[in-house]
Amino acid sequence: MNPRQLKNKTQRRGRRKAGIRKRVIGTPECPRLSVFRSAKHIYAQVIDDLAGKTLVAASTVTAGTETGGNIAAAEAVGKALAEKAKAAGVGAVQFDRNGYRYHGRVKALADSAREAGLQF
């Protein structure tokens, strides 16, 4: 992929992200679960946008998984995040896929968090 294609790809994701963020706002009652994925790791955090605070965070860096760029690691992060969120008193969240397709690692993280008891 040449640099021009990469720039366009990043810009398209930015536009998708802006459209999602117009609709999804984290409140104290129902915070936002935001997902970021890189080639090596996946990160997720539960955010109260009104207070500007991250309530709970989990990632493949902190979860202690061997590799972070696969579906199994994303499932581990989703489960860890849901357990931390429940311990912090968060039961329901709004899912912010951050401009990524709901597919692969993003979907695995979301499904794992749902199975562990998080509502969204």
Automatic annotation (TrEMBL):
User: Keyword RNA-binding: yes or no?
Assistant: yes
Q: Does the keyword Ribosomal protein apply?
A: yes
Keyword list (alphabetical) reads: Ribonucleoprotein, Ribosomal protein, RNA-binding, rRNA-binding
Q: Which domain of life is it from?
A: Bacteria
* GO molecular function term, any single one: structural constituent of ribosome
Record's InterPro entries?
Ribosomal_L18, Ribosomal_uL18_bac-type, Ribosomal_uL18_bac/plant/anim
Identify one Gene Ontology CC term for this UniProt entry: cytosolic large ribosomal subunit
Q: Which GO terms describe its biological process?
A: translation
The record's section on Pfam families has: Ribosomal_L18p
Q: Which NCBIfam families match?
A: L18_bact
What's the subunit arrangement here? Part of the 50S ribosomal subunit; part of the 5S rRNA/L5/L18/L25 subcomplex. Contacts the 5S and 23S rRNAs.
Spell out the family assignment given in the record's similarity comment. Answer: Belongs to the universal ribosomal protein uL18 family.
Q: What does this protein do?
A: This is one of the proteins that bind and probably mediate the attachment of the 5S RNA into the large ribosomal subunit, where it forms part of the central protuberance.
Q: What's the name of the protein?
A: Large ribosomal subunit protein uL18
Give the originating organism. Mucisphaera calidilacus
Organism classification: Bacteria, Pseudomonadati, Planctomycetota, Phycisphaerae, Phycisphaerales
